[in-house]
Amino acid sequence: MFLGLDLGTSGLRGLLIDAAQRTVAVAEASYPTARPAPGHSEQDPRDWIAACRTVIAALKAEAPTEMAALRGIGCSGHMHGAVLLGADDAEQRPCIMWNDTRSADQAARLDAAADVRALSGNIVFPGFTAPKLMWVAEHEPEILARTARVVLPKDYLTLWLTGAHATDMSDASGTSWLDVGARDWSDRLLAASGMTRDQMPALHEGTVPVGTIRPGLADELGLPRGVVVAAGAADNAAAACGIGALEHGDGFVSLGTSGVLLAARDRFAPKPESAVHTFCHAVPGRWYQMGVILAATDSLNWLARNLQADPAALTAALGDRIGPPGRLRFLPYLSGERTPHNDSAIRGAFIGLDIGMGHAELTHAVLEGVGYALRDSLDALRDTGAALKRVTAIGGGSASRYWLELLATLLDLPIDRPARGEFGAAMGAARLATCAATGAAPEAVMIRPPIAETIAPRDDLRAEYAAGHAAYRNLYPAIRALQS
Known about the structure:
Belongs to the FGGY kinase family. β10 and β11 (184-185) form a beta hairpin.
């Protein structure tokens, strides 16, 4: 048995699978996010440990015999978070999260420094880890002085499980401290933000074991001793492992809190100015690139909250088949935007509101706006040389067939909808655990899931949505000028 633990933005998901990759049991636990000031987003790492205890206890209650046969654990999690640890490994402050934008000024300064983009392969976004430490140095110097090591969120779980300070290549890629082409920490990048190698965890490929569960903790949790813990992966790299996106041209579209369009690459081919992320994959010798928008289902959830409605009910009311583009435009920049704008200050807008519009028009505009933003990401990816012939849909928003047909038409790509089952980051983490515990080759473990349906672009609407996207792209500079 193999366990994948996915540390998500709002909760931790545990997935137990057997050697045939059949789902045995699933459990979840949530935790809060604090927003102490505008642009700030923080979580208490101790809440993650409490959630992990809850999930493991629930899995044991549901599948006691299977959990007694546990051989490996893999962790995945949200990227870029800064967990600052003292010499005794105690956290020094709450984790500064991926969607925290307080370090925009520090990110801009670091991004302008010599060699930073060339070595990291990426723009330094405000959400990345390095500018967060620069912010701490400037605003909380006493905390930085006590910081002996910095780990990423999922690696805090690994530390708790094993006592090892370790990370994997995919998660390290989002720090602005990694030479992504060489797959090693860069002394130049570390020095640019005032850090040293001694403050970094050890680097591993995601399929490598980094240790076993501490004997005392195994006994406390009622787990077998000697369970292997893999280096794991960042959430999107883990999701790529979960749906078998390893080869050049494989990819997925994720409709989660954020929106992601990911393409696997067989070589390091960055183009930072496109605002596309170029990261190491969780498996050796591979990379991936992705366009990221900061508010995908977050946009729908925001609308539902303000309409006092259920998000699923709003999308269900639209049916399964799309019509022409709406007259109402929505810019999904509720938390700023990454690809292609790299603009933490931009904010969202509705354009073209009419007195006769209601819930259906607002909902369609939100889904359409997210789709247009993902089309921006596709154009940026293609500009780097990434190739996508089709994508697999994952994330909570993929439950809406309407949204997927809209995306297929906007992206002009077939979208594969997996059959019922678990194929996200938790599955990828469990697959990484399988490789670490058994030595199996990633290609043998990380296979594509069975597909329930392939949703094709609507030929009759392709030209209309292409025109709609062109109009959408013209809105960004106008809104940016108004908000300056």
